[in-house]
Amino acid sequence: MTKYELISEEIRKRIGTAYYPEDQPIPDENSLAAEFQCSRMTMKRALDLLVAEGLLFRKRGHGTFIVKAALNKRAINVSGHENRGFTKVMADKNVTSQIIRFDVHFPSEEVAAHLSIDSSAPVYDIVRLRLVEEEPYVLEKTFMPVNVIKGIDEKVLLGSIYSYISNTLHLKVAGAHKKIRAAKSDQLDQQYLGCDQADPVLEVEQVAYLNTGRPFEYSFSHHRYDKFEFSTVEITKTGL
Amino acid sequence: MTKYELISEEIRKRIGTAYYPEDQPIPDENSLAAEFQCSRMTMKRALDLLVAEGLLFRKRGHGTFIVKAALNKRAINVSGHENRGFTKVMADKNVTSQIIRFDVHFPSEEVAAHLSIDSSAPVYDIVRLRLVEEEPYVLEKTFMPVNVIKGIDEKVLLGSIYSYISNTLHLKVAGAHKKIRAAKSDQLDQQYLGCDQADPVLEVEQVAYLNTGRPFEYSFSHHRYDKFEFSTVEITKTGL
DNA sequence: AAGTGGTCTAGACCACGGA
DNA sequence: CCGTGGTCTAGACCACTTT
Protein backbone atom coordinates (compact mmCIF):
# COMPACT_ATOMS: atom_id res chain seq x y z
CA MET A 1 0.00 0.00 0.00
CA THR A 2 1.45 3.36 -0.98
CA LYS A 3 1.39 6.46 1.15
CA TYR A 4 -1.10 8.27 -1.08
CA GLU A 5 -3.44 5.28 -1.01
CA LEU A 6 -3.30 5.10 2.77
CA ILE A 7 -4.00 8.80 3.12
CA SER A 8 -6.78 8.49 0.57
CA GLU A 9 -8.44 5.75 2.61
CA GLU A 10 -8.25 7.81 5.76
CA ILE A 11 -9.88 10.80 4.07
CA ARG A 12 -12.53 8.54 2.54
CA LYS A 13 -13.31 7.21 5.98
CA ARG A 14 -13.58 10.75 7.32
CA ILE A 15 -16.01 11.69 4.59
CA GLY A 16 -18.08 8.59 5.25
CA THR A 17 -18.29 9.34 8.96
CA ALA A 18 -19.10 13.04 8.49
CA TYR A 19 -15.86 14.02 10.18
CA TYR A 20 -15.81 17.03 7.86
CA PRO A 21 -18.89 19.26 7.61
CA GLU A 22 -20.33 18.74 4.15
CA ASP A 23 -21.07 22.39 3.48
CA GLN A 24 -17.53 23.64 3.97
CA PRO A 25 -14.31 22.95 2.14
CA ILE A 26 -12.13 20.30 3.69
CA PRO A 27 -8.77 21.62 4.95
CA ASP A 28 -6.45 22.94 2.27
CA GLU A 29 -3.73 20.80 0.74
CA ASN A 30 -0.90 22.35 2.71
CA SER A 31 -2.61 21.77 6.06
CA LEU A 32 -3.48 18.20 5.15
CA ALA A 33 0.07 17.58 3.94
CA ALA A 34 1.32 18.85 7.29
CA GLU A 35 -1.15 16.67 9.20
CA PHE A 36 -0.21 13.55 7.26
CA GLN A 37 3.46 14.44 7.16
CA CYS A 38 3.79 14.24 3.43
CA SER A 39 4.60 16.58 0.59
CA ARG A 40 1.84 18.56 -1.03
CA MET A 41 2.22 16.54 -4.25
CA THR A 42 1.50 13.33 -2.37
CA MET A 43 -1.46 14.93 -0.61
CA LYS A 44 -2.81 16.10 -3.93
CA ARG A 45 -2.44 12.65 -5.34
CA ALA A 46 -4.38 11.14 -2.45
CA LEU A 47 -7.19 13.64 -3.05
CA ASP A 48 -7.06 12.96 -6.79
CA LEU A 49 -8.22 9.42 -6.12
CA LEU A 50 -11.26 10.67 -4.25
CA VAL A 51 -12.03 13.23 -6.95
CA ALA A 52 -11.92 10.44 -9.52
CA GLU A 53 -14.38 8.46 -7.40
CA GLY A 54 -16.77 11.39 -7.37
CA LEU A 55 -16.50 11.91 -3.61
CA LEU A 56 -14.70 15.26 -3.77
CA PHE A 57 -14.40 18.08 -6.24
CA ARG A 58 -12.14 21.07 -6.34
CA LYS A 59 -12.67 24.77 -6.97
CA ARG A 60 -9.55 26.61 -7.91
CA GLY A 61 -9.03 29.56 -5.61
CA HIS A 62 -11.62 28.18 -3.16
CA GLY A 63 -10.87 24.77 -1.85
CA THR A 64 -11.83 21.13 -2.01
CA PHE A 65 -15.43 20.13 -1.30
CA ILE A 66 -17.49 17.07 -0.61
CA VAL A 67 -19.95 15.98 -3.29
CA LYS A 68 -23.30 15.89 -1.51
CA ALA A 69 -24.75 13.43 -3.99
CA ALA A 70 -22.07 10.94 -2.99
CA LEU A 71 -23.09 10.89 0.65
CA ASN A 72 -26.41 9.23 -0.13
CA LYS A 73 -24.61 6.24 -1.53
CA ARG A 74 -24.64 3.15 0.57
CA ALA A 75 -21.68 3.32 2.89
CA ILE A 76 -19.13 4.64 0.39
CA ASN A 77 -17.15 1.64 -0.78
CA VAL A 78 -14.65 1.11 1.93
CA SER A 79 -11.87 0.56 -0.52
CA GLY A 80 -13.50 2.69 -3.18
CA HIS A 81 -13.21 0.73 -6.39
CA GLU A 82 -15.90 1.08 -8.99
CA ASN A 83 -14.44 -0.68 -11.98
CA ARG A 84 -13.15 -4.06 -10.89
CA GLY A 85 -14.42 -6.68 -13.35
CA PHE A 86 -16.44 -9.69 -12.20
CA THR A 87 -14.29 -11.92 -10.07
CA LYS A 88 -12.86 -9.21 -7.88
CA VAL A 89 -16.25 -7.87 -6.94
CA MET A 90 -17.47 -11.37 -6.17
CA ALA A 91 -14.49 -12.14 -3.96
CA ASP A 92 -16.44 -13.60 -1.07
CA LYS A 93 -19.34 -15.07 -2.99
CA ASN A 94 -19.85 -18.50 -4.41
CA VAL A 95 -19.20 -18.25 -8.15
CA THR A 96 -19.75 -21.30 -10.35
CA SER A 97 -19.94 -21.92 -14.08
CA GLN A 98 -21.95 -24.05 -16.45
CA ILE A 99 -20.51 -24.87 -19.88
CA ILE A 100 -22.96 -24.37 -22.73
CA ARG A 101 -20.53 -24.67 -25.62
CA PHE A 102 -16.85 -25.45 -25.91
CA ASP A 103 -15.35 -25.65 -29.39
CA VAL A 104 -12.20 -24.84 -31.29
CA HIS A 105 -12.34 -23.52 -34.86
CA PHE A 106 -10.97 -20.85 -37.18
CA PRO A 107 -12.06 -17.31 -36.37
CA SER A 108 -14.39 -15.20 -38.45
CA GLU A 109 -12.97 -12.03 -39.98
CA GLU A 110 -14.43 -10.03 -37.15
CA VAL A 111 -13.05 -12.19 -34.36
CA ALA A 112 -9.62 -12.35 -36.02
CA ALA A 113 -9.54 -8.58 -36.34
CA HIS A 114 -10.46 -7.96 -32.70
CA LEU A 115 -7.87 -10.44 -31.49
CA SER A 116 -5.23 -9.15 -33.93
CA ILE A 117 -4.59 -12.65 -35.22
CA ASP A 118 -4.58 -14.35 -38.61
CA SER A 119 -7.67 -16.23 -39.82
CA SER A 120 -5.60 -19.39 -39.79
CA ALA A 121 -4.96 -19.23 -36.04
CA PRO A 122 -7.57 -21.32 -34.23
CA VAL A 123 -9.65 -19.89 -31.42
CA TYR A 124 -11.62 -21.33 -28.55
CA ASP A 125 -15.32 -20.66 -28.91
CA ILE A 126 -16.81 -20.78 -25.45
CA VAL A 127 -20.26 -20.11 -24.08
CA ARG A 128 -20.59 -20.20 -20.31
CA LEU A 129 -23.27 -19.39 -17.84
CA ARG A 130 -21.85 -17.92 -14.67
CA LEU A 131 -23.78 -18.20 -11.46
CA VAL A 132 -23.42 -16.31 -8.22
CA GLU A 133 -24.84 -18.08 -5.18
CA GLU A 134 -26.59 -20.51 -7.55
CA GLU A 135 -28.40 -17.66 -9.32
CA PRO A 136 -27.77 -17.11 -13.06
CA TYR A 137 -25.70 -13.95 -13.31
CA VAL A 138 -24.22 -13.58 -16.75
CA LEU A 139 -24.02 -15.50 -20.02
CA GLU A 140 -20.59 -15.11 -21.62
CA LYS A 141 -19.66 -15.81 -25.22
CA THR A 142 -15.88 -15.82 -25.44
CA PHE A 143 -13.25 -16.17 -28.17
CA MET A 144 -9.61 -16.72 -27.22
CA PRO A 145 -6.64 -17.60 -29.43
CA VAL A 146 -5.50 -21.16 -28.73
CA ASN A 147 -1.87 -20.13 -29.30
CA VAL A 148 -2.01 -17.53 -26.58
CA ILE A 149 -4.13 -19.20 -23.92
CA LYS A 150 -2.98 -22.80 -24.09
CA GLY A 151 -4.53 -25.77 -22.43
CA ILE A 152 -8.08 -24.63 -21.73
CA ASP A 153 -10.25 -27.62 -20.82
CA GLU A 154 -13.58 -28.23 -19.15
CA LYS A 155 -12.02 -28.21 -15.73
CA VAL A 156 -10.67 -24.72 -16.28
CA LEU A 157 -13.99 -23.52 -17.65
CA LEU A 158 -15.84 -24.71 -14.56
CA GLY A 159 -13.67 -22.37 -12.49
CA SER A 160 -12.32 -19.01 -13.47
CA ILE A 161 -10.46 -18.52 -16.76
CA TYR A 162 -8.78 -15.50 -15.25
CA SER A 163 -7.39 -17.51 -12.35
CA TYR A 164 -6.06 -20.07 -14.82
CA ILE A 165 -4.40 -17.36 -16.89
CA SER A 166 -2.69 -15.76 -13.93
CA ASN A 167 -2.02 -18.70 -11.63
CA THR A 168 -1.26 -21.52 -14.07
CA LEU A 169 -0.07 -19.80 -17.23
CA HIS A 170 1.53 -16.97 -15.27
CA LEU A 171 0.31 -14.37 -17.72
CA LYS A 172 -0.80 -10.95 -16.64
CA VAL A 173 -3.92 -9.11 -17.69
CA ALA A 174 -3.14 -5.48 -18.39
CA GLY A 175 -6.56 -4.10 -19.24
CA ALA A 176 -9.62 -4.19 -21.46
CA HIS A 177 -11.66 -2.06 -23.81
CA LYS A 178 -15.39 -2.33 -23.29
CA LYS A 179 -18.51 -1.29 -25.12
CA ILE A 180 -21.80 -1.36 -23.28
CA ARG A 181 -25.15 -1.49 -25.04
CA ALA A 182 -28.70 -2.76 -24.73
CA ALA A 183 -29.73 -5.76 -26.83
CA LYS A 184 -32.69 -8.06 -27.31
CA SER A 185 -32.39 -11.32 -25.47
CA ASP A 186 -31.83 -14.31 -27.72
CA GLN A 187 -32.89 -17.89 -27.26
CA LEU A 188 -29.81 -18.74 -25.17
CA ASP A 189 -30.38 -15.79 -22.85
CA GLN A 190 -33.96 -16.80 -22.27
CA GLN A 191 -33.02 -20.40 -21.63
CA TYR A 192 -30.10 -19.83 -19.29
CA LEU A 193 -30.60 -16.43 -17.70
CA GLY A 194 -34.23 -17.31 -17.24
CA CYS A 195 -35.46 -14.13 -18.82
CA ASP A 196 -38.67 -13.62 -20.71
CA GLN A 197 -38.76 -13.29 -24.48
CA ALA A 198 -39.62 -9.62 -24.08
CA ASP A 199 -36.77 -8.93 -21.67
CA PRO A 200 -33.73 -7.07 -22.94
CA VAL A 201 -30.16 -7.75 -21.81
CA LEU A 202 -27.23 -5.49 -21.08
CA GLU A 203 -24.47 -6.51 -23.47
CA VAL A 204 -20.81 -5.83 -22.70
CA GLU A 205 -18.45 -6.34 -25.61
CA GLN A 206 -14.87 -6.63 -24.45
CA VAL A 207 -11.38 -6.93 -25.86
CA ALA A 208 -8.97 -7.77 -23.06
CA TYR A 209 -5.21 -7.78 -23.45
CA LEU A 210 -2.18 -9.13 -21.65
CA ASN A 211 0.77 -7.15 -20.38
CA THR A 212 2.52 -8.24 -23.56
CA GLY A 213 0.07 -6.01 -25.44
CA ARG A 214 -1.52 -9.05 -27.06
CA PRO A 215 -5.31 -9.25 -27.07
CA PHE A 216 -6.34 -12.60 -25.62
CA GLU A 217 -10.10 -12.35 -25.23
CA TYR A 218 -12.94 -11.07 -27.36
CA SER A 219 -16.21 -11.55 -25.57
CA PHE A 220 -19.86 -10.65 -25.29
CA SER A 221 -21.44 -10.77 -21.86
CA HIS A 222 -25.20 -10.72 -21.46
CA HIS A 223 -26.63 -9.57 -18.15
CA ARG A 224 -30.25 -9.65 -17.01
CA TYR A 225 -31.58 -6.12 -17.40
CA ASP A 226 -33.11 -6.16 -13.94
CA LYS A 227 -30.03 -7.40 -12.10
CA PHE A 228 -27.08 -5.53 -13.45
CA GLU A 229 -26.08 -1.97 -14.06
CA PHE A 230 -22.85 -0.23 -14.80
CA SER A 231 -21.76 2.74 -12.68
CA THR A 232 -19.41 5.49 -13.67
CA VAL A 233 -18.34 8.96 -12.62
CA GLU A 234 -17.82 11.82 -15.00
CA ILE A 235 -15.60 14.71 -13.99
CA THR A 236 -15.79 18.04 -15.77
CA LYS A 237 -12.32 19.27 -16.50
CA THR A 238 -11.66 22.29 -14.32
CA GLY A 239 -10.44 24.29 -17.27
CA LEU A 240 -13.75 24.11 -19.13
CA MET B 1 -2.98 23.80 -22.73
CA THR B 2 -0.53 22.39 -20.20
CA LYS B 3 2.84 20.96 -21.00
CA TYR B 4 1.85 17.40 -20.15
CA GLU B 5 -1.23 17.64 -22.36
CA LEU B 6 0.83 18.92 -25.28
CA ILE B 7 3.38 16.16 -24.89
CA SER B 8 0.57 13.64 -24.54
CA GLU B 9 -0.94 14.79 -27.85
CA GLU B 10 2.39 14.49 -29.59
CA ILE B 11 2.90 10.95 -28.35
CA ARG B 12 -0.69 10.07 -29.28
CA LYS B 13 -0.01 11.33 -32.79
CA ARG B 14 3.16 9.26 -32.98
CA ILE B 15 1.29 6.14 -31.95
CA GLY B 16 -1.42 6.82 -34.50
CA THR B 17 1.12 7.24 -37.31
CA ALA B 18 3.16 4.18 -36.33
CA TYR B 19 6.15 6.36 -35.54
CA TYR B 20 7.02 3.83 -32.85
CA PRO B 21 7.20 0.12 -33.76
CA GLU B 22 4.30 -1.57 -32.01
CA ASP B 23 6.21 -4.60 -30.87
CA GLN B 24 8.86 -2.74 -28.92
CA PRO B 25 8.69 -0.50 -25.88
CA ILE B 26 8.55 3.20 -26.61
CA PRO B 27 11.60 5.10 -25.35
CA ASP B 28 12.02 5.15 -21.59
CA GLU B 29 10.76 8.02 -19.50
CA ASN B 30 14.16 9.62 -19.00
CA SER B 31 14.90 9.71 -22.73
CA LEU B 32 11.48 11.12 -23.52
CA ALA B 33 11.83 13.70 -20.75
CA ALA B 34 15.13 14.74 -22.29
CA GLU B 35 13.62 14.90 -25.78
CA PHE B 36 10.67 17.02 -24.64
CA GLN B 37 12.78 19.05 -22.25
CA CYS B 38 10.69 18.37 -19.21
CA SER B 39 11.11 16.62 -15.89
CA ARG B 40 10.50 12.93 -15.61
CA MET B 41 7.38 13.58 -13.47
CA THR B 42 5.84 15.63 -16.24
CA MET B 43 6.73 13.01 -18.82
CA LYS B 44 5.16 10.35 -16.66
CA ARG B 45 2.03 12.41 -16.34
CA ALA B 46 1.78 12.81 -20.10
CA LEU B 47 2.06 9.05 -20.51
CA ASP B 48 -0.47 8.52 -17.70
CA LEU B 49 -3.12 10.13 -19.88
CA LEU B 50 -2.44 7.68 -22.68
CA VAL B 51 -2.44 4.74 -20.29
CA ALA B 52 -5.84 5.88 -19.01
CA GLU B 53 -7.08 5.98 -22.61
CA GLY B 54 -5.95 2.41 -23.14
CA LEU B 55 -3.36 3.33 -25.76
CA LEU B 56 -0.31 2.43 -23.69
CA PHE B 57 0.47 0.14 -20.80
CA ARG B 58 3.51 -0.18 -18.60
CA LYS B 59 5.57 -3.08 -17.35
CA ARG B 60 7.68 -2.31 -14.36
CA GLY B 61 11.28 -3.13 -15.03
CA HIS B 62 10.59 -3.42 -18.77
CA GLY B 63 9.18 -0.33 -20.32
CA THR B 64 6.08 1.25 -21.79
CA PHE B 65 4.28 -0.49 -24.64
CA ILE B 66 1.61 0.20 -27.21
CA VAL B 67 -1.71 -1.63 -26.81
CA LYS B 68 -2.16 -3.47 -30.09
CA ALA B 69 -5.91 -3.65 -29.71
CA ALA B 70 -6.03 0.14 -29.67
CA LEU B 71 -4.43 0.47 -33.09
CA ASN B 72 -7.42 -1.08 -34.83
CA LYS B 73 -9.62 1.71 -33.60
CA ARG B 74 -10.65 4.25 -36.15
CA ALA B 75 -7.97 6.91 -36.23
CA ILE B 76 -7.37 7.19 -32.47
CA ASN B 77 -9.35 10.21 -31.33
CA VAL B 78 -7.13 13.08 -32.21
CA SER B 79 -7.77 14.72 -28.89
CA GLY B 80 -8.50 11.47 -27.16
CA HIS B 81 -11.58 12.07 -25.05
CA GLU B 82 -13.93 9.19 -24.44
CA ASN B 83 -16.23 10.50 -21.76
CA ARG B 84 -17.50 13.90 -22.81
CA GLY B 85 -21.27 14.00 -22.34
CA PHE B 86 -23.66 14.78 -25.19
CA THR B 87 -23.18 18.34 -26.32
CA LYS B 88 -19.41 18.24 -26.44
CA VAL B 89 -19.38 15.23 -28.72
CA MET B 90 -21.99 16.80 -30.97
CA ALA B 91 -20.06 20.04 -31.26
CA ASP B 92 -20.34 20.41 -35.01
CA LYS B 93 -23.68 18.74 -35.49
CA ASN B 94 -27.15 20.18 -35.66
CA VAL B 95 -28.75 19.41 -32.30
CA THR B 96 -32.42 20.36 -31.73
CA SER B 97 -35.01 19.55 -29.10
CA GLN B 98 -38.70 18.80 -28.96
CA ILE B 99 -40.60 19.39 -25.71
CA ILE B 100 -42.84 16.49 -24.70
CA ARG B 101 -43.64 17.62 -21.18
CA PHE B 102 -42.81 20.67 -19.11
CA ASP B 103 -44.27 20.91 -15.61
CA VAL B 104 -43.39 22.10 -12.14
CA HIS B 105 -44.49 20.16 -9.06
CA PHE B 106 -43.29 18.78 -5.75
CA PRO B 107 -40.76 15.97 -5.98
CA SER B 108 -41.39 12.36 -5.08
CA GLU B 109 -39.37 10.92 -2.21
CA GLU B 110 -36.98 9.38 -4.67
CA VAL B 111 -36.39 12.54 -6.67
CA ALA B 112 -35.98 14.64 -3.53
CA ALA B 113 -33.43 12.19 -2.19
CA HIS B 114 -31.36 12.16 -5.35
CA LEU B 115 -31.37 15.94 -5.56
CA SER B 116 -30.68 16.31 -1.82
CA ILE B 117 -33.64 18.65 -1.42
CA ASP B 118 -36.73 18.80 0.75
CA SER B 119 -40.05 17.44 -0.54
CA SER B 120 -41.43 20.96 -0.29
CA ALA B 121 -38.96 22.37 -2.83
CA PRO B 122 -40.56 22.34 -6.29
CA VAL B 123 -38.83 20.73 -9.25
CA TYR B 124 -39.11 21.04 -12.98
CA ASP B 125 -40.39 17.87 -14.58
CA ILE B 126 -39.18 17.85 -18.14
CA VAL B 127 -39.38 15.34 -20.95
CA ARG B 128 -37.51 16.23 -24.10
CA LEU B 129 -36.67 14.48 -27.31
CA ARG B 130 -33.25 15.45 -28.56
CA LEU B 131 -32.50 15.17 -32.25
CA VAL B 132 -29.18 15.14 -34.04
CA GLU B 133 -29.36 16.12 -37.69
CA GLU B 134 -33.17 15.75 -37.51
CA GLU B 135 -32.86 12.13 -36.34
CA PRO B 136 -34.25 11.16 -32.91
CA TYR B 137 -31.27 10.56 -30.70
CA VAL B 138 -32.29 10.40 -27.06
CA LEU B 139 -35.39 10.84 -24.93
CA GLU B 140 -34.57 12.61 -21.67
CA LYS B 141 -36.69 12.69 -18.54
CA THR B 142 -35.23 15.34 -16.26
CA PHE B 143 -35.89 16.70 -12.77
CA MET B 144 -34.22 19.92 -11.63
CA PRO B 145 -34.83 21.97 -8.48
CA VAL B 146 -36.51 25.26 -9.39
CA ASN B 147 -34.57 27.03 -6.63
CA VAL B 148 -31.25 26.04 -8.11
CA ILE B 149 -31.85 26.33 -11.83
CA LYS B 150 -34.06 29.40 -12.06
CA GLY B 151 -35.92 30.67 -15.07
CA ILE B 152 -36.19 27.60 -17.28
CA ASP B 153 -38.74 28.22 -20.03
CA GLU B 154 -39.67 26.70 -23.36
CA LYS B 155 -37.10 28.76 -25.17
CA VAL B 156 -34.32 27.34 -22.99
CA LEU B 157 -35.62 23.83 -23.46
CA LEU B 158 -35.55 24.14 -27.22
CA GLY B 159 -31.82 24.80 -26.99
CA SER B 160 -29.37 23.31 -24.53
CA ILE B 161 -30.07 23.42 -20.79
CA TYR B 162 -26.34 23.10 -20.18
CA SER B 163 -25.60 26.21 -22.24
CA TYR B 164 -28.25 28.10 -20.28
CA ILE B 165 -26.76 26.97 -16.98
CA SER B 166 -23.23 28.01 -17.88
CA ASN B 167 -23.79 31.03 -20.12
CA THR B 168 -26.85 32.67 -18.59
CA LEU B 169 -26.87 31.53 -14.97
CA HIS B 170 -23.06 31.41 -14.84
CA LEU B 171 -23.09 28.19 -12.87
CA LYS B 172 -20.48 25.51 -13.37
CA VAL B 173 -21.07 21.82 -13.79
CA ALA B 174 -18.54 19.85 -11.77
CA GLY B 175 -19.44 16.28 -12.62
CA ALA B 176 -22.04 13.53 -12.62
CA HIS B 177 -22.68 10.04 -11.34
CA LYS B 178 -24.15 7.70 -13.92
CA LYS B 179 -25.72 4.27 -13.93
CA ILE B 180 -26.13 2.48 -17.21
CA ARG B 181 -28.60 -0.32 -17.75
CA ALA B 182 -30.85 -1.94 -20.31
CA ALA B 183 -34.60 -1.37 -20.09
CA LYS B 184 -37.75 -2.15 -21.98
CA SER B 185 -38.96 0.66 -24.17
CA ASP B 186 -42.11 2.33 -22.93
CA GLN B 187 -44.87 4.00 -24.87
CA LEU B 188 -43.01 7.33 -25.04
CA ASP B 189 -39.86 5.69 -26.35
CA GLN B 190 -41.76 3.94 -29.06
CA GLN B 191 -43.59 7.08 -30.06
CA TYR B 192 -40.65 9.47 -30.09
CA LEU B 193 -37.55 7.39 -30.66
CA GLY B 194 -39.45 5.49 -33.30
CA CYS B 195 -38.58 2.12 -31.87
CA ASP B 196 -40.63 -1.02 -32.03
CA GLN B 197 -42.49 -2.38 -29.04
CA ALA B 198 -40.01 -5.23 -28.81
CA ASP B 199 -36.97 -2.93 -28.92
CA PRO B 200 -35.06 -2.31 -25.70
CA VAL B 201 -33.42 0.99 -24.81
CA LEU B 202 -30.15 1.86 -23.12
CA GLU B 203 -31.05 3.82 -20.00
CA VAL B 204 -28.60 6.21 -18.37
CA GLU B 205 -29.60 7.42 -14.91
CA GLN B 206 -27.65 10.48 -13.92
CA VAL B 207 -27.19 12.77 -10.94
CA ALA B 208 -25.24 15.84 -12.02
CA TYR B 209 -23.89 18.40 -9.61
CA LEU B 210 -22.57 21.95 -9.71
CA ASN B 211 -19.21 23.15 -8.50
CA THR B 212 -21.02 24.18 -5.36
CA GLY B 213 -21.50 20.49 -4.62
CA ARG B 214 -25.23 20.84 -5.09
CA PRO B 215 -26.99 18.25 -7.26
CA PHE B 216 -29.01 20.07 -9.92
CA GLU B 217 -30.18 17.33 -12.24
CA TYR B 218 -31.64 13.88 -11.81
CA SER B 219 -32.38 12.36 -15.17
CA PHE B 220 -33.11 9.24 -17.15
CA SER B 221 -31.94 9.17 -20.75
CA HIS B 222 -33.26 6.55 -23.13
CA HIS B 223 -31.19 5.73 -26.20
CA ARG B 224 -32.16 3.53 -29.12
CA TYR B 225 -30.41 0.21 -28.58
CA ASP B 226 -29.15 0.10 -32.14
CA LYS B 227 -27.70 3.60 -32.22
CA PHE B 228 -25.87 4.14 -28.99
CA GLU B 229 -23.22 2.40 -26.96
CA PHE B 230 -21.02 3.40 -24.10
CA SER B 231 -17.26 2.88 -24.33
CA THR B 232 -14.84 2.54 -21.46
CA VAL B 233 -11.33 1.38 -20.70
CA GLU B 234 -10.39 -0.73 -17.73
CA ILE B 235 -6.82 -0.72 -16.47
CA THR B 236 -5.51 -3.47 -14.25
CA LYS B 237 -3.57 -2.00 -11.40
CA THR B 238 0.09 -2.86 -11.90
CA GLY B 239 0.39 -4.16 -8.37
CA LEU B 240 -2.16 -6.94 -8.84
C1' DA C 1 24.86 -4.39 -11.75
C1' DA C 2 22.09 -1.88 -14.88
C1' DG C 3 17.82 -0.28 -16.56
C1' DT C 4 13.04 0.20 -16.22
C1' DG C 5 8.80 2.32 -14.09
C1' DG C 6 6.58 3.78 -9.14
C1' DT C 7 6.72 6.86 -5.38
C1' DC C 8 7.97 10.77 -2.74
C1' DT C 9 10.07 15.17 -1.61
C1' DA C 10 10.79 20.35 -1.00
C1' DG C 11 10.23 23.99 -3.30
C1' DA C 12 8.91 27.08 -7.17
C1' DC C 13 5.75 29.62 -10.04
C1' DC C 14 1.11 30.20 -12.16
C1' DA C 15 -4.19 30.85 -12.39
C1' DC C 16 -8.12 31.88 -10.16
C1' DG C 17 -11.30 34.02 -6.87
C1' DG C 18 -12.33 36.80 -2.90
C1' DA C 19 -11.25 40.73 0.54
C1' DC D 1 -3.11 41.18 -1.56
C1' DC D 2 -3.66 36.52 0.02
C1' DG D 3 -5.17 31.82 -0.04
C1' DT D 4 -6.59 28.30 -2.85
C1' DG D 5 -5.63 24.54 -6.18
C1' DG D 6 -2.71 23.39 -10.86
C1' DT D 7 1.67 22.63 -12.83
C1' DC D 8 6.50 21.80 -13.03
C1' DT D 9 11.16 20.80 -11.50
C1' DA D 10 15.49 18.16 -10.06
C1' DG D 11 16.59 14.80 -7.58
C1' DA D 12 16.10 10.83 -4.45
C1' DC D 13 14.98 6.18 -3.28
C1' DC D 14 12.37 1.85 -4.08
C1' DA D 15 10.55 -2.39 -6.74
C1' DC D 16 10.97 -5.24 -10.43
C1' DT D 17 13.27 -7.58 -14.38
C1' DT D 18 17.04 -8.86 -17.13
C1' DT D 19 22.09 -9.41 -17.69
UniProtKB/TrEMBL annotation, chains A, B:
<dbReference type="InterPro" id="IPR028978">
    <property type="entry name" value="Chorismate_lyase_/UTRA_dom_sf"/>
</dbReference>
<dbReference type="InterPro" id="IPR050679">
    <property type="entry name" value="Bact_HTH_transcr_reg"/>
</dbReference>
<dbReference type="Pfam" id="PF07702">
    <property type="entry name" value="UTRA"/>
</dbReference>
<dbReference type="GO" id="GO:0003677">
    <property type="term" value="F:DNA binding"/>
</dbReference>
<feature type="domain" description="HTH gntR-type">
    <location>
        <begin position="1"/>
        <end position="69"/>
    </location>
</feature>
<dbReference type="InterPro" id="IPR011663">
    <property type="entry name" value="UTRA"/>
</dbReference>
<dbReference type="GO" id="GO:0045892">
    <property type="term" value="P:negative regulation of DNA-templated transcription"/>
</dbReference>
<keyword id="KW-0678">Repressor</keyword>
<keyword id="KW-0805">Transcription regulation</keyword>
<keyword id="KW-0804">Transcription</keyword>
<keyword id="KW-0238">DNA-binding</keyword>
<dbReference type="InterPro" id="IPR036388">
    <property type="entry name" value="WH-like_DNA-bd_sf"/>
</dbReference>
<dbReference type="GO" id="GO:0003700">
    <property type="term" value="F:DNA-binding transcription factor activity"/>
</dbReference>
<dbReference type="Pfam" id="PF00392">
    <property type="entry name" value="GntR"/>
</dbReference>
<dbReference type="InterPro" id="IPR000524">
    <property type="entry name" value="Tscrpt_reg_HTH_GntR"/>
</dbReference>
<dbReference type="InterPro" id="IPR036390">
    <property type="entry name" value="WH_DNA-bd_sf"/>
</dbReference>
<protein>
    <submittedName>
        <fullName>GntR family transcriptional regulator</fullName>
    </submittedName>
</protein>
